[in-house]
Amino acid sequence: MRNHRGLPGVNLRLGGVAVPAQFAGATPGDPGGDQINAALPRGLTGRGEMDVVLMVDGKTTNSVRIIIK
């Protein structure tokens, strides 16, 4: 993910809902670590288990499942 072309190229979807990334880059104090910061929409509250899908500059990462209570 490092050296991506900018936030417009970072697409995050939770349970099919687009969530804008606020930051995507190196994790401060963790060499080799990357992070994405995003504010979760209130509409996801109580949705339970869902897929997290990340696409950066047209390349899709492995998806993960999370639970939102």
Please give the structural blueprint.
Blueprint: E1 10-14, E2 17-26, E3 34-38, E4 48-56, E5 59-60, E6 64-68
Antiparallel strand pairs: 1-2, 1-4, 2-3, 4-5, 4-6
In words, what does this structure look like?
With 69 residues, this protein is an all-beta fold. The protein has one domain. The chain is 0% helix and 52% strand. The chain contains no helices and six strands. It has strands spanning 10-14, 17-26, 34-38, 48-56, 59-60, 64-68. Strands 1, 2, 3, 4, 5 and 6 form a six-stranded antiparallel sheet that branches. The chain is globular and about 35 Å long. It starts with 9 loop residues before the first strand and ends with a strand. The mean pLDDT is 94.
Write a compact overview of the structure shown.
By secondary structure, the chain is mostly beta strands. It contains no helices and six strands.
Distance between the termini: 28 Å
Number of separate domains? 1
Helix-strand sequence: EEEEEE
Radius of gyration (Å)? 12 Å
Let me know the largest β-sheet: 6 strands, antiparallel
Helix and strand content put the structural class at mainly beta
Q: What's the number of extended β-strand segments?
A: 6
Question: So what's the oligomer here?
Answer: single chain
| Mean pLDDT level | 94
User: Percent range for helical residues?
Assistant: under 10%
Shape: globular
β-strand percent reads over 45%
Unreliable parts: none
The helix tally amounts to: 0
